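Let us practice reading a record.
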Amino acid sequence: MPSRLSAEAPSREERQQFLERVQRQGYETGYKGVRITKTGERFMIEEATLWQLFSEDGKLHGQAAVVPRTRDI
């Protein structure tokens, strides 16, 4: 499932704001939110960190994330 669809519809705006902060600042930590698996099960991610990945010449190659904790809801 594409990452943008893993957030519930009401939470997609919050997720988008988080991604925009990462783009401006280069990273953000402490994010939490409800996500949905491709089978429709809901779970909470907690204390996530997301950062931009750049090559040595400054080209953006994408993003990486660490989600140290999840829990069933």
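A brief commentary: Helices lie at 12-25.
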